[in-house]
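Incident log, support desk, overnight shift.

02:14 A customer reports that sequence design results differ from what the structure should imply. Their input is reproduced verbatim below. On-call engineer (initials T.W.) acknowledged and began investigating.
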């Protein structure tokens, strides 16, 4: 590999990743998920299906935050 192939090309990255970042910004609103509060009471429900759903809400919220942070970081890099 040459040095030119390894060089960061902001324009190329913006062209390829910009639409993805914009789509994510339009689809995901962190505020909608920040209000979700899953307590220990929710996790200890007698119905195992209900408890499982609450556990999944906790996991999904964590993954969404991580993806959002990563996409925001990429967006900052693309903006300069």
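02:41 Re-run completed on a clean worker. Output:
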């Amino acid at each position: 590999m040459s040095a030119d192939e390894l060089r960061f090309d902001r324009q190329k990255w913006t062209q390829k990743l910009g639409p993805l970042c914009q789509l994510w910004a339009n689809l995901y609103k962190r505020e909608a998920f920040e209000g979700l509060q899953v307590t220990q009471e929710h996790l200890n429900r007698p119905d195992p299906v209900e408890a499982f759903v609450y556990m999944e809400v906790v996991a999904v919220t964590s993954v969404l935050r991580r993806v959002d942070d990563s996409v925001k970081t990429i967006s900052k890099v693309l903006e300069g």
